[in-house]
Structure formats: C-alpha cells, structure tokens
Write a structure and sequence with these properties.
about 80 residues, mainly alpha, 5 helices
Length: about 80
C-alpha cells in the first residue's frame, strides 16, 4: 500500500483538501480518504493524475508500487 503520510503531505503542500482533490479527479471524497489511510489504492491512471496534480513522482507517492489489475483475455472469434 501507499505511504499515506507522503500522500497527505503532498496534498497539503499543493494547497488542496480532500474534497478539492476528489473533485479534480472526479472521485468521491471518501475514496481520497481511503487512499490517504492506505485502505484503498488508486488505479495506475489515477496515480499518474495524482502525481501530476500534487507534484511528487508516482514512485514517491507509491514507493511500493501499484498493483496491476489483471488484463482479461480476449475471446477468440471463429477461425
């Protein structure tokens, strides 16, 4: 999970509250709270947006990396 302290510090340095950040990302305020507390993890795309909005690179906000969602295999059509 992410380093919640780094995430919160970056958010505060960017002058944002949880509600403002949630609005910019079009997610709920409770989801931002879960990211900060380490109870949830953003998608890779959300993590990139967070990095752009807050400043620190993704590897600083998420030093243990992000879990990748498995990519579903596409069904093959008739041959």
């Amino acid at each position: 999970m992410m380093q919640s302290s780094e995430f919160k510090i970056a958010r505060l340095r960017a002058g944002m509250d949880q509600r403002g950040l949630a609005q910019k990302l079009e997610v709920s305020e409770s989801l931002v709270s879960k990211w900060e507390s380490g109870r949830a993890q953003p998608s890779p795309e959300q993590a990139r947006l967070l990095s752009q909005l807050l400043g620190p690179p993704t590897f600083v906000l998420f030093p243990q990396g992000l879990r990748r969602s498995p990519v579903p295999l596409q069904e093959e059509g008739p041959r």
